[in-house]
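Worked example

This section walks through a single chain of length 346. The input is the sequence exactly as stored; nothing has been trimmed or padded.
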Amino acid sequence: MLDGLRLLAALSVVLFHYLAGSGTVPWQATATELFPTLHRIAGFGWLGVVFFFMISGFVICMSAWGKSLQQFWQSRILRLFPLYWAAVVLSTLAGRLGPQTPGEPKVTVGQMLTNLTMLHEPLGVSHVDTVYWTLWVELRFYLIFSLVVLLGTSYRRIANFCWIWALGSVLAPASGIPLLEQLLVPLWAPFFIAGIVFYLVRRAGQFEAETLGLLALSWLLMQHRLPAVMAWEGHGINWKVCLAAITVMYLVMGLIALGKLDRIQWRWLPVAGAISYPLYLVHQSLGVRVIWRWNEQWGAWPTLLGVIAGIVLVAWLLHRLVERPLTRLLRRMMTAQTESAQKLTA
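Given that input, the structure is written out below as C-alpha cells.
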C-alpha cells in the first residue's frame, strides 16, 4: 500500500507544478483560466511532499532495523543516487538544449557537477531542478538517524531518539546555532518523527501510551509549524484545509501501522512505488518545457494528459534502463570493496 501512496504523493506534486501557478508559466494562458476547478485542487498538491517525508520516516526505520551503519548507508546510496545522477544529467540537457521558459537561467556545467554530489545546497549552488531541495532534507534525516543505527536499533532507542529530536527541533531555532538548526530540520521534523513512530506501532501491532504521546506531540508541533511551511511554500491557501489533509495522512498511516490495509495487494503497486522517485525527479524539468512549447498547438487538456502520461513513461524507462543496471553495478562494487576490506583486516 505504501507504494501506491508514494505514487499518489508524486502525482499530487506533479499537478501542483503543472497547474498551481497563477502566472503564465508553464501555460501561455493562465492555469486558472484553463483549469478553473483542477487549478484550485492542484494548489494543495505540495502536500505530497509532506506525505513523502512521513512515509520516509516509516520506510527508513523499517529498512534500517537490524542493519549496521555501513549496510544502512549502502542501501540509501543505492536507492537515491543512481536515479538522481541520471535526473541531474537529463535535466541539465533539457535546460541547455530544450525550450526555455521565461526568465529561466541556463544550467552551467559546474552547477551540474556540483549537483551530482547532492550537497549543492549547503555549498551555495543553485538546484538544477528545484525539486531537489527535498533530497537535502532527506539526507539530513539520514544523518541524524545514523546515530540510532550506530548504537543498534531497538524500540527504546528509537523512541528516545524521537523524543530528543522533537525537543531539539523546538530548541534549535532559538539556540542561535545555525548548524544545529540545519541538522535538526525543525520545519519538517514532525513529519519524519510521525513516520518513525508509525513503524514502531507496526512492529508492536498496537498503539501504546508512549507511541500515542509521540504522535500527539508530532501533530501539535506540525500544526504550530504549518503556517511557516505554507509561507515557505509561498502559497496563501487555507490553513484549516491543509491541517485536515495532513490529519488524514496521519489516519491513513495509522491504518497501515495496524495492518488494516495489508489486504490491498494490487499487482501494479510495486511498479507504482518504483516509478514514484524518478517521476518526482524529472517531472518539472521535462514536463514544464513541453507544456510551455506545445500547449497552444495541442490544447490544454490534451497537453496536460499527454505530458503526464509521457512523464510516467519516462519515469518507468529510467527505472528499467538506468536504475536497475546501475544499482546492480554499484552493489557489486560495494560488495567487492567490503570483501577486500574484510580480507585486509583478517
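What to look for: The mean pLDDT is 92.
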